């Protein structure tokens, strides 16, 4: 019943969240059934696409809600972090960038809670750096999911993208803390 009352952008966010367990389960079978890599990548790209789509629809039709401002970034974080952790477990990615990403995501989520509870009581929407971080994360994760195809390219594109993803993640996290430092002085 609640889902029926949700606007389309919030339904797309919820759909992204619901894709996570399916992607997670399928990833554990990609070493046994190679073509599942493509299904997982397709599901990940589709779920990632809903991120762009829900934001465009919400802004265009004035359907921006506090639910969307809070849940949209959480859905992105859950999607990306889930896949990154499985990639580490499968030995396809170093744990170091993933630990930095997880730390940043938890810190920014905590900051959002602090800002919402502060004197300004504001829901922190994604900044341009946060949006760039999300796009680069999703492109990089897609490349990692398709690392067997990406290996054909003679350039070290995946390591370069992992470095870019990690750097943007850290930069955008610092930017949020600088922007909302006055809220931290309340504590």
Index terms:
single chain; 187 residues; Four Helix Bundle (Hemerythrin (Met), subunit A); 9 helices
Explain what the structure shows:
- It is a single chain.
- With 187 residues, this protein is mainly alpha-helical.
- The protein has a single domain (2-181), classed as CDP-alcohol phosphotransferase transmembrane (TM) domain (Four Helix Bundle (Hemerythrin (Met), subunit A)).
- Helix content is 78%, strand content 0%.
- It has helices spanning 2-5, 8-27, 36-60, 66-89, 95-117, 128-145, 147-150, 157-179, 181-184.
- α2 (8-27) runs parallel beside α4 (66-89) and α3 runs antiparallel to α6 (128-145).
> Looking at the structure, what is the overall shape?
globular
Q: What share of the residues lie within helices? A: over 70%
Q: How much strand content do the residues show?
A: under 5%
Q: How many beta-strand elements? A: 0
Report the sheet with the most strands, covering strand number, pairing sense and barrel closure.
none
Radius of gyration: 17 Å
Number of helical elements: 9
Straight-line N-to-C gap: 39 Å
What is the helix/strand order?
HHHHHHHHH
CATH class: Mainly Alpha
Question: Low-confidence parts lasting 5 or more residues at pLDDT below 50?
Answer: none
Count of individual domains: 1
CATH H-level name... which superfamily? CDP-alcohol phosphotransferase transmembrane (TM) domain
Helix/strand class = mainly alpha
